[in-house]
Amino acid sequence: MIVANWKMHFDAKGAIEAGCSIKTELSSAKVELAVCAPCLYLKELFECFKDTNIKLGAQNLYFEDEGAYTGEISAMMLKSVGCEYVIIGHSERRQIFGEDDELVNKKLKSAIKHLLVPILCVGESLSQRQNNETFAVLENQLVKDLQGIKESVIIAYEPIWAIGSGKVAQPDQIFEVHEFIKKFIDTKVLYGGSANPQNALTLSSVANVDGFLVGGASLDAQKFKEIVLSFEKAKGVA
Ligand SMILES: O=C[C@H](O)COP(=O)(O)O
After folding, report:
1. What residues does 5 pair with on adjacent strands?
2. Catalytic residues (predicted)?
3. CA 58 → CA 171, 197, 228, distances in Å?
4. Cα 13 to ligand 1 centre (Å)
5. Active site annotation includes 114
């Protein structure tokens, strides 16, 4: 599975153009694809992706269904515009917006209640890796974030130091972390962090990489397509 995370990019015209380009380039892809777009553009993108294999996702939600929560968007709302996936606990939300594991857990439960498939992001900072704390950090996140949750949640391993930095994690680093996560929960584990057309084949060749969560390179349909094609080639689904 390959997921685009557009983050806070594109105006309305740009988003629809990017969605249309992805549809043109990738409507015959064999792997599962999802585009997690800014909420404003979801409804129009749903129309664009309808009758294709490209699914729609959001980048965040609030855990209550509705109420006096100015500026927030709920799982119920996302579902009503055709979302099937939602990213939860991205490190940018944890670091910039102060989301803690308790909030992430509530968000995951709300997504599941409304039949959205959550993509839970976990990962360590550079200093945590340098202090050999990677596995302790991941275990702490997984235990707290997934408390009381048995339903299927997709996990994205996103080392914070690799996000948007051009510093991609090494295959052996990814392999051992994905192995650790899969011992904790039997589910798909995606890798995220500077995945691009140049490194996609190498990263895809890591046996327990089940896909990617792609930020920057997903803004360009050609680059996104190259990542998808490399993944299909490495996994023998081309
Ligand atoms: O959600 C995506 C990740 O944060 C990776 O972003 P990036 O591909 O721009 O490094």
Report:
1. 36
2. 90, 158
3. 28, 24, 20
4. 22
5. no
Ligand 1 centroid distance, CA of 67 (Å): 32
CATH class of 2-235: alpha beta
- 154 Cβ below 6 A of ligand 1: no
> For the chain, how many residues are written?
238
Tokens encoding 107: 């968000």
Q: Which of 223, 196, 198 is nearest to 212 (CA)?
A: 196
Report d(CA 100, CA 207) in Å as an integer. 31
Which one-letter amino acid corresponds to residue 147?
A: Q
Sign of CA dihedral 79, 111, 190, 126: positive
Mean model confidence pLDDT for the chain: 97
CB of 116 closer than 6 angstroms to any ligand 1 atom:
no
Write the pLDDT tens digit of every residue in 91-105. Answer: 999 999 999 999 999
**What pTM was estimated for this model as a whole?**
0.97
Among 60, 191, 198, 213, which is best to mutate for testing ligand 1, by the most ligand atoms less than 8 A from CB?
Answer: 213
> Does the interface predicted TM-score (ipTM) exceed 0.95?
yes
Under the banding of pLDDT at 50, 70 and 90, the label for residue 39 is very high
Is ligand 1 within 6 A of the CB of residue 192? yes
pLDDT at 238 over 90: no
The Cα–Cα gap between 159 and 181 comes to 13
